[in-house]
Amino acid sequence: AESSRYRPIKRLDESVVNRIAAGEIIHRPANALKELIENSLDAGATLIRITLKEGGIKMLQIQDNGSGIQPSDLPLLCERFATSKLRDFGDLENMSTFGFRGEALASISYVTASMNVVSKTKHQDCAFRAYYANGSLTPSKPGQSADPKQCAGTDGTLITAEDLFYNVPQRRRALRSAADEYNRALDVVSKYAVHYGGKGVGFVCRKASSNATDLNTPSSPTNSTLDTIRTLHGNAVARELVQLKGVADGNLGFQCHGWVSGANWSSKRTTMLCFINNRLVDCPLLKRSIEALYATLLPKGGHPWVYLSITVNPANVDVNVHPTKKEVHFLHEEEIVEHICQDVQKLLAGANSSRTFTFSQ
Ligand code: ADP
Ligand code: MG
């Protein structure tokens, strides 16, 4: 009986391996979208337009005005571990791009029923359209060739992915409602829009079912971060924010700036936008420390609004600790967080005294 239970070891099919790996990187529409936004930013885009159907589950589309993709690169575009950004392991010490592993587009092509890309560089006369499935070029219809075809298009890249997780039923079932997934996706767009609003990058996000936009920020060099915050979060919070300017420490090797709410603002939930080297990340330690600091300042149950942009030496950051890169590790993390919190505290103490002053008038 024992021996009949024995099953020999076999190699998994490459397609199974790749689909499993894709599931580790793409959890839901919002993180597929984050990867695509980061690709557009890596390509130098200044305008990024996003359209989602059923929260991105039915369709996720992103159009940018970045560098575009050369036709000769299209065959490798969705192949796993194919990238234009990283050449050898040593490059990881000094990455200035979001991407480096060449896994995002591959993953998306493994877990969507249909994916197509239209792209044009400014040196080409026309755009090319290519369809992908399971990491490779695929015909758009059975019987046709898989080769990219010329088509009309503007400079930049348009990517459309349809039917996310059509082949991963357990993942598909785990998704929330279309409305919930849409809100998560919109949250990612909104955070990048704030961070890049002051750097001349505009974002548009809408549902495919509507022509009205849910988010629309200008791609204008004169737009400031605070302007974008006001547009997206409202004046009620924008006018209560104080600017954290140029906190830096040479020994710890970091800089930090941002906007944080003062003692007059309090909300039921913390809003935390945290960017490390321009990448949107969860920084649980920083969030906890900031919340602890505000707990002493705000009425019970009140929470702050915080946007922090931290820059550390790329050689000190490990972005490879989490498959979705939403968590990063960096050297001197605890000291840096403590330093930032002390500076926020000082800033608020200053802002506080002026409030007391206006109060007593
Ligand atoms: P990575 O970003 O890690 O290189 P991706 O799978 O996200 O891997 O993308 C693969 C390659 O496709 C990138 O290295 C880049 O050359 C190209 N690419 C992807 N998206 C875009 C885009 N929006 N504009 C221009 N090139 C792109
Ligand atoms: Mg990428």
Explain the layout of strands and helices.
Blueprint: H1 14-25, H2 29-42, E1 47-53, E2 59-64, H3 104-111, E3 112-120, E4 127-133, E5 136-137, E6 149-151, E7 156-164, H4 169-174, H5 178-197, E8 202-207, E9 215-216, H6 225-233, H7 235-238, E10 241-249, E11 254-261, E12 271-276, E13 279-280, H8 284-295, E14 305-312, E15 317-318, E16 329-330, H9 333-360
Parallel strand pairs: 1-8, 12-14
Antiparallel strand pairs: 1-2, 2-7, 3-4, 3-7, 4-5, 4-6, 8-9, 10-11, 11-14, 12-13, 15-16
Helix pairs in contact: 1-3, 2-5, 5-6, 8-9
This protein binds adenosine-5'-diphosphate and magnesium ion.
The site of adenosine-5'-diphosphate has 22 residues, from α2 and α3.
Bound molecules: adenosine-5'-diphosphate, magnesium ion
How many β-strand runs? Answer: 16
Inertia-based shape: globular
Structural class: alpha+beta
**Percentage of helical residues?**
25-40%
Instruction: Enter the CATH topology name of the largest domain.
Output: Heat Shock Protein 90
How many domains would you count in the coordinates? Answer: 2
Q: Beta-sheet strand percentage?
A: 15-25%
CATH top level label of the largest domain? Alpha Beta
**Could you give the distance between the termini?**
89 Å
Write a structural description:
- The protein has 361 residues and is an alpha+beta fold.
- The protein folds into 2 domains: 14-216, Histidine kinase-like ATPase, C-terminal domain (Heat Shock Protein 90, 2-Layer Sandwich), CATH 3.30.565; 236-360, Ribosomal Protein S5, domain 2 (2-Layer Sandwich), CATH 3.30.230.10.
- Helix content is 31%, strand content 24%.
- A hairpin with a 7-residue loop joins strand 8 (202-207) and strand 9 (215-216).
- Helix 2 runs parallel beside helix 5 and helix 5 (178-197) runs antiparallel to helix 6 (225-233).
- The chain starts with 13 loop residues before the first helix and ends with a helix.
- The chain binds adenosine-5'-diphosphate and magnesium ion.
- Adenosine-5'-diphosphate binds at residues 35, 39-40, 43, 64, 66-69, 77, 83-85, 99-106, 157.
